[in-house]
Specification:
This protein is α/β, with parallel strands linked by helices. It has seven helices and six strands; from the N terminus they run H-H-H-H-E-H-E-H-E-H-E-E-E. It folds into two domains: about 70 residues, Up-down Bundle (Four Helix Bundle (Hemerythrin (Met), subunit A)); about 110 residues, 3-Layer(aba) Sandwich (Rossmann fold). Helix content is about 45%, strand content about 20%. Strands 1-6-2-3 form a four-stranded parallel beta sheet. The protein is elongated, with a radius of gyration of 22 Å.
């Protein structure tokens, strides 16, 4: 995503003119990179102000300001990492348009949590894409975790029934860890749902 955005930026500044058309093209490129409209507006306002105040005319300098503006929005106050509930279960919901890497990311997170001793259950919510459930089944098998699923083509809301069945059928008596002297079940659900492109 970021690489394509920077390639688009390079093409735009290749015209040699920083004008309103340039900013409109940049806005479109930022939106196509799946950046929220409000964030896009903030980035553009900040970039316009910086270019004006610092009298930037060189594309390389402008590109660095754009990179910084985007990177600043990824900063967070808390340490990076996954937050696990003190009481089970923890649910991670992965939502995005087709082809952005939800399934691969789910597999990576499941692998990491499984290695840390958590009992991971994958829930196949992307039931309309061809082979979506089968793809997640392959990852669940590789990672060594359970998968719950509905029938292909069914409504993703049916996952709630699947998750309930999973809880009844597998109490996970051995999936406990100690935290602050309390024993608890650490169950993590990871669910991926694809949204159609607008």
């Amino acid at each position: 995503m970021f690489k394509r955005l920077m390639e688009s930026f390079d093409r735009m500044v290749g015209r040699g003119v920083i004008d309103e058309d340039f900013y409109e093209e940049l806005e479109e490129a930022l939106l196509q990179a799946d950046i929220h409209i409000q964030t896009v507006q903030e980035i553009l306002d900040e970039l316009r102000r910086t270019v004006r105040d610092e009298k930037i005319t060189e594309p390389a300098a402008m590109k660095e300001r754009l990179k910084k503006s985007i990177a600043d929005r990824f900063k967070q106050d808390r340490p990076a990492g996954l937050e696990i509930n003190d009481t089970a279960p923890t649910l991670f919901l992965f939502v995005g348009v087709n082809g952005v890497g939800k399934t691969t990311t789910i597999a990576k997170v499941a692998h990491l949590l499984t290695k840390r001793g958590f009992k991971v259950v994958l829930a196949a919510g992307d039931t309309f894409r061809a082979a979506a459930i089968e793809q997640l089944e392959v990852w669940a098998d590789r990672v060594g975790c359970q998968i719950v699923k509905s029938q292909p083509g069914s409504d993703a809301s049916r996952l709630q029934d699947s998750l309930r069945r999973s809880r009844r059928n597998n109490p996970l008596k051995n999936a406990t860890r100690t935290r602050q002297g309390h024993r608890r079940r650490n169950r993590v659900f990871a669910c991926g749902i694809a949204m159609g492109a607008a």
